[in-house]
Amino acid sequence: MNRLTRSPLLWPLLALAALLLFNLVVNPGFFAVRIQDGHLFGSLVDVLKNAAPTLLIAIGMTLVIASRGIDLSVGAVVAIAGAIACNSLVSAPDPTSAGAAVVAISTALGVALLLGAWNGLLVSVLGIQPIIATLVLMTAGRGIAMLITDGQIITVDNDTYGWLGGGYLFGIPAQVVVAGLILLAVALLTRRTALGMLLEAVGINPEAARLAGVRSRSIVWTVYVFAALAAAVAGLMISAQVTAADANRAGLFIELDAILAVVIGGTSLAGGRYSLTGTVVGALILQTLTTTVYTVGIPPDMTTLFKALVVIVVFLLQAPRLRAVLARRRRPAPPPLPSGGLPEEAAAVLTGGPVLADDEHTPAPTAGGTTGSGRGALR
Amino acid sequence: MTVSDTRPTAPDPAAPPPAGPGGRRPWQTWLRSTTTGSRTFSVLVTGVLLVVLFGTGSARYENFGSPQVALNLLVDNAHLVVLAVGMTFVILTGGIDLSSGAVVALSTVIAASLLEAGWPAPVAIAVVLATGALLGWLMGAAVHHLQLQPFIVTLAGMFLARGLCFVISVPSIPIRDPFFQSMAQDVVELPGNTFLTYSVFIALAVLVAAVWVLHRTRFGRTVYAIGGNESSAALMGLAVGRTKVGVYVISGTLSALAGLLFTFYMLSGYSLHAIGMELDAIAAVVIGGTLLTGGAGYVVGSLLGVLVLGTIQALISFDGGLSSWWTKITVGVLLLVFVVVQRLTTRRARPGT
Amino acid sequence: MRTTPAGPADGAGPATPSQPVVEMSGITIEFPGVKALQAVDLRLFPGEVHALMGENGAGKSTLIKALTGVYSYDSGTVTVGGTERSFSSPAEAQAAGISTVYQEVNLCPNLSVTENIVLGREPRRRGHIDRRASRTRARAVLARLHLDVDPDSTLGTHPIAVQQLVAIARAVDTDCRVLVLDEPTSSLDAGEVAELFRVIRALRDSGVAILFVSHFLDQVYEISDRMTVLRNGQLVGEHRTADLPRLQLVQEMIGRELATLEDLERAAANPVPTDAVPRLSGRGLGRTGALAPVDLDVHAGRVVGLAGLLGSGRTELTRLLFGADRATSGELRMDGRPVRLRSPRQAIAHRIAFSSEDRKAEGVVGDLTVRDNLLLALQARRGWLRPIPRRTGDELVAKYMAALDVRPADPDALLRNLSGGNQQKVLLARWLLTEPRLLLLDEPTRGIDIGAKAQIQQLVAQLASDGMSVVFVSAELEEVVRICDQVVVLRDRQKVAELDGATSSVDDVVDLIARGGRS
Fold first, then answer.
1. Owning domain of residue B237
2. Which CATH number characterizes residue C411's domain?
3. How far apart are CA C437 and CA C351, in angstroms?
4. N or C, which end of chain B has less CB nearby within 10 Å?
């Protein structure tokens, strides 16, 4: 129980449960899932389906954030991917053929690869702060997407391409299948190999990781490339759903939603330890919230307000400082852990640097053997 | 026993002079002060860039070089100047304010709806400014007291402010208040058949006040100190908490003021106004030479940054053949150039041991 | 045990009133589970330099933080200038005339020297900061300390030593009655220490009480008038420096007879097979601005010590040998074959391992578990695609945690929750797991308790006799001389001599460091 209440996922899960329950009260049929023409339908299915693009981007963002970075450019990549795919489709010899769709999708993914490599170059090779490095592409990217579509909304008509946005596989919406598969692949790739551990090491202490022989540079580079690829897949989904490329509005602010999903899920923006499960919960919270706003009949524009409120509540509950502030205002030193841990965090905050004599408060284990006599002599 | 240190060393005539405080050669001092003093240099570069851009425009397009076109840079961007000044305060402490564009929108909506409801203009203005200050205070308090990251706090603030816009009014509200109308239309005639709006004077007054606060008050020096090394600033006994909250209050208030100037400019309140304007402000601050890591930069640089953005926009609109999205691409490229140059100069400026 | 609790008035120190400016008595601080300080007393008199002595973990920093308002104490009293005070922040303590200068310079590198001195208490005129008065004041305090620093220059452009002195200038700019110097000399070279001591003496003579913390005994004996010794959070003694033999001080600090220390088995010198090719051989290895070209041979099974003061080039040399920094000159051979080390990865591929002196910044990955930290280097070498199988990992971790006696013996504890000594053992184990042929240890025993220190020294001897080559850097020359087969002496970023560890003494090394190898 103690373990549960201290889990960082507790509050996000409770928030999600509360939202779902609220929906159930407002709309008793909310949990109903029915099968029609071999396809799954229902509000929950819609939540999953609509959450898929944000979730995909949030997965990429989780890895980027774990590496001590952030990627503001994913929204722009969404727009560019859609623009490239649709542009490629309309200029194909047979715009309705499956081959044209494959070419379009591959081209979009290839360009995304380049864009991710560009971000990775700025961050890992030139050493530019991630927030600024990706701000460059965030600013210019949407302009590039407009350049590709020439400022027009390009509509396409291709069943293969459209499947990504509205199709089904074994009765499950294609978006959910694709997002689920990518999530699974990432989970396996990071947790079954050593990638996750090395990535966390790079995020927690880049210099220590470098000196331990970790290929920090290529790991950081890889996560930016992956983030861009995930964003491109999301962009293709979004564009396929409306069978059009809208360079102006596609993926607008989706980077912010993705970052929120990651942070709500308990991954710290400071980098290091990350939780894919948390990110999934975070993305589901955001989408359930949007759905709830629709269900209740509030103007959809006001979703942002509710997002802000949920985010504020989750943050306040998670903020360790808030609990610490409430618990004890007086002493700046937080309790050391029972295992002989040290109030080094407080000391580091107060002295602003590495606390070198970090075992200052812990009696030396071996010298402890002689303290008995010393104590006796002193008294 | 620790025998790790100095016995008095016999003076060695062959050894180089000790690198004591006075032992530095003048050229070294000069080199070092110019590399770390690169912020001043950076502002100069932005100034030169502005002149070059404007010169290019004057050479290529007829009428571009007229004084009024130059003045229009200020007229059209007065709100952005105010916004960038507020952003500079926050960035100097090493923070960031993503909410400022949304606060601009919220300000236009509050002002328009209050005026529509028949409130007198001064009261509406006071309410707008107070709302901005309050939002800024809330965000600053969350950043400082809860030790949450500025990025995420102001992101929540951005959503909150946009959400509040929609709560107040989804459709755009026109403004017919005489005071706002006159602020929008009246101009100050200047010699040479040119003019400026009142908004420009407000923006320049804000700029002057900001320079004074940052360089001539303890609050301002503390802003720089926090950006330089926050924990040192705390150990030096500076009012770190009050100052950090303060910069967000300033940014919130200035965002609201920028919102009012934008209202004068647009004469409407609309929840979708100023989308992404915070990015323009951040870009202007960075192009103006302020380090996003904090501690170095000048508000005057931010003014130049805004004018550079404005000139690019003017260039693209003068050239009928270029589409508007070239603005974004150009700004992105400029941002890239400045960021890379910043990176290279700060890397070089690290003092040797 | 408490001996000669003598005030300075009856001693040889400068003429002082007998009333202490600060009197701390019975100070007790408990952190949950740990008594950091138990009823500790401390008296500071005006015009004295008072050294606070103790091993790591003795409670020196905690006592200083109790005095300067960083920590609150559970019981005891602090009297300043005769009245009882309790500070809740460094600012309050400073207002009462107690200033602190920390080991790391706590100033703002982006501001000018003047600004750093007057920050927060700038002279004001008509509502705004009076820059001219600020500069005048900064000049005055710099002149008072005889420091020749341009007040308008940016602080960050100066070397650390000058920044440290500016920090002192800031500390004494106000009405400063007590100046606390927490390990101010740890990153200074000999000339800079002399400069610092000159400033300290000037301040002492002007009546300031100076509380001085340092690990360097020579410096303490050179500068201090009296000292207070702590051990394990308890007061051991208060002495006049002149009356306290070094041997007794060391005994009080470590709480056992010195002979026990010297009992530590000296590693049997491993003879060099004269015809063998050295495992590692550097010729003219150097890096512009960091190290003049150095020749170095390390044979299999030998421990090579690098001796020298901080900044003498010993860390720089180990970093070059590991590819952490790139050499700009010279060549390196492993087993006679030339190698180029451009990155740590390449060094690791040649089975070289490196434990950095800056454990916290360059070794510990605090938020990962002990297990992950142990396996990090091995895993990095295997690449991320070939994870270490769970069971193999568990076995390795269990084996090395037991071998190095890591406590607590919990592989899932986060590394940041372990004490410094245990963190160091984990970092050593991280490298031993990779079965290196050459182990570079930069200050592996710094800042850890004496028990762990002895264990690490024994381990090094053991590894060498098993055939590993070790390069061992330590500021503690006794340690270097005791465990190394061969000692390379560095001074001012140059190699000045190479000694046989078995036949040389600490005095020989000190002599070389002091005289630079020229006789």
1. 42-344
2. 3.40.50.300
3. 5
4. C
